[in-house]
Amino acid sequence: MDPTSDNRLTKNRRRTALTLGLINGALWSAGNGLTTGALVLYLAQELGAKGIGVSMILAAPSLAGLLRLVAPRSIARLGVKRTCLVYFACSYLLLAVALPSLIFAQGMTADDAARRTTLILLVALICVHQLLEYIGHVALWSWLAAIVPLPLRGRYFGKRQAWQLAALAPALLVGGLFIDRWKETHREHEPQRMLLGYGAATGVGAWLLVASLVPLALMPAVHVASRGPKSTNTSSLLAALIDPTFRRLLAYRAWFSFFNGVGQAALNIFPYRVLQIPVLPMQLMPLGMRLGQLAASPAVGRASDEVGNRPVLIASQAIVAVGPLFYLMATPHAPWWIVGAWIAYVAYAGTNICLPNLMLKLAPPDNAPYIAVAETISGLAYGVSAIAGGLLFDALAQRGSTVTLGPVVLDHFGLLFVFGALTRALGIVWLVRIREPGARSWREIFAWGT
Q1: Is pLDDT at 316 greater than 70 in this prediction?
Q2: Residue of 390, 356, 420 lying closest to 60 (CA atoms)
Q3: Which of 43, 124, 135, 353 is the most exposed place for a label (fewest CB within 10 A)?
Q4: Run of H or E including 403
């Protein structure tokens, strides 16, 4: 336990802590937007990544995240605040120094043979960075659970989500605009230097992540329930799997993560290779989605507290499942159809707020092992499926596989888009089985909505 921790927060200290948590979320979101997502995936494809290469960028961090099971032991020994700060600092400083250096080194040479090595190093770097960050996030969720009063958690997580989205919007806009203009300027005369724009943008993002540590350092250290270092032994970690209520949540998270991962190679390669959409529009679509989430987050947080998390998750899952079908309708002559997918993905606001809230609600006071197990299972499912999806994508593309359904002919992209929509929709089956304490019945929900 951190010797400086104190759970007896005054009203003013708690209010200050909650505000610092919001500032941390905003800085982290802006930095994360410039070091992940379309920007890094486009960079990987500039380096020659195919289906399996893109999948490894997406999957490697999740697979390495298995080691986040060490988080409860670290929390028991160092305290929640020190664990959070130490792992986040190592993660962000590594990224801030190594990622721009790696990209600049490749961007200063025209040697195509070095690109494969650079791609491998990029995957390894992101893997280590996000592994350390995952462990820090286990501590952060446990820390916030100790600071935020249970009756207000839904509203607070909704507000934190809003702050994150508000900071992410300008980061995505400026980053995408900068990279597209840089590439356009250097494409003809200095094509090897096109990568330098990626180095500059990701470098700024990495240092924003470092800046996000400042509000965390100012937050009060509180004690979280723990049975000491033995809380990471096998019986403690298996408790989350044995708990029938929490086990249902784990089943949903595994399904949700697995079938989100299967289609990621197709979803991320299609705009670049088939539709040939520049970086900026691919940043603007997630930006529009996040602005929609920004508007929806307060209402989602309120519904989470007053109605329950499970009903909101069911509605969100049903809407999100429609997203891949818009990719199915997009063509090089009508690429705008994929905008519909990003409109549907606004419903992820419900997942982003209610899933961690429900996890903390179903976990006992000694919640670090439960959080670690939930995050590990989710990451493992996503990582395995992303790699499997990348291999499947490359195999279907190589064989030229097609399926005819009446007047519709589905190529390898279309097959994965339809599969993704169906399997995401089936995730509702797992949500229905979850029993959430204090949640309203469906009759009460409909009455509340009117």
Answers
A1: yes
A2: 390
A3: 124
A4: strand 403-405
59 Cβ neighbours under 8 A, 6+ residues apart: 261, 382, 383, 384, 385, 386, 387, 390
Pairing of strands 408-410, 403-405: antiparallel
Count CB-CB contacts under 10 A for residue 433.
12
80-107 and 71-78 are packed helices; what angle lies between their axes, rounded to 10 degrees? 120
Q: Give burial (CB, 10 Å; 0-12/13-18/19+) of 186.
A: middle
Contact 227, 336 (CB under 8 A): no
**38: nearest Cα among 263, 270, 248:** 270
Question: How far is the CA of 373 from the CAs of 82, 193, 207, 240, in angstroms?
Answer: 21, 43, 30, 7
Under a CB-based contact definition with an 8 Å cutoff, are residues 369 and 232 in contact? yes
Domain boundaries along the sequence of the chain: 11-434
What CATH architecture applies to the domain 11-434?
Up-down Bundle (1.20)
